[in-house]
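Incident log, support desk, overnight shift.

02:14 A customer reports that sequence design results differ from what the structure should imply. Their input is reproduced verbatim below. On-call engineer (initials T.W.) acknowledged and began investigating.
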């Protein structure tokens, strides 16, 4: 900002992080506001600020190290109740009793997937590091690396199919925690359906490798909560979510 320097001679900086989906999607014509904000105007008074690349402001001047900051843990931009909205009875919803059981069901499923994945990878050639491999698997997901080349780098010339199946299971195990699944007031919505389909994919991949019964246990856990508006339990929401994409429950 074109304002007086701070006491330590730093120029004032405002870093604004915002959702791209707000502009023209959630709020009509907001993209015009964004255009006005970032495009300099040749006429009229100076607007009082400049838009600069982050790389420019993140370079520490010689002899002037940046101050340290701390992140306020367990806080959210979209809810005044910390992160409760994604795990329990947040006051933002009239009846949020379904949120904690859904979270518990998926956390239990995730734990089961992890236990099986660790046991199976420990018996594979070279005992690859499951978590390092999962992180590196993003290159396959985005198409930067062929899956066979990826697998060969982790388990050599062994049968790649089980290893790649576990990587896919871990991919969808992460996807099932997409925040939109808990964001709204009722679980009988497309967002929660998407979360449940990801959970089904992860569970079925692992169940296909070993008789773990993960999907069966998850279904029992989902039956413990119900939709406040539609009076159907989580197991039925799960079945309907799969039916919409032609998958049997």
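02:41 Re-run completed on a clean worker. Output:
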């Amino acid at each position: 900002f074109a304002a007086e320097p701070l006491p330590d001679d730093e120029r004032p900086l405002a870093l604004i992080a915002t959702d791209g989906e707000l502009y023209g999607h959630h709020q009509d014509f907001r993209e015009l506001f964004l255009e006005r904000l970032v495009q300099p105007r040749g006429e009229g008074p100076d607007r009082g600020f400049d838009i600069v690349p982050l790389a420019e402001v993140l370079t520490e001047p010689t002899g002037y190290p940046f101050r340290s900051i701390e992140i306020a843990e367990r806080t959210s931009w979209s809810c005044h109740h910390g992160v409760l909205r994604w795990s329990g009875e947040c006051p933002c919803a009239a009846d949020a009793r379904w949120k904690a059981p859904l979270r518990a069901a998926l956390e239990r499923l995730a734990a089961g997937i992890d236990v099986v994945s660790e046991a199976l990878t420990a018996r594979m050639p070279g005992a690859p590091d499951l978590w390092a491999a999962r992180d590196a698997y993003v290159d396959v997901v985005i198409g930067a690396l062929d899956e066979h080349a990826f697998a060969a780098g982790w388990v050599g010339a062994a049968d790649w199919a089980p290893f790649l199946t576990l990587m896919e299971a871990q991919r969808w195990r992460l996807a099932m925690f997409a925040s939109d699944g808990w964001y709204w007031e009722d679980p009988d919505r497309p967002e929660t359906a998407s979360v449940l389909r990801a959970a089904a994919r992860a569970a079925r991949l692992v169940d296909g490798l070993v008789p773990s019964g993960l999907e069966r246990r998850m279904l029992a856990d989902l039956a413990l909560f119900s939709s406040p508006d539609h009076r159907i339990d989580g197991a039925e929401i799960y079945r309907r979510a799969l039916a919409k994409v032609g998958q049997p429950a």
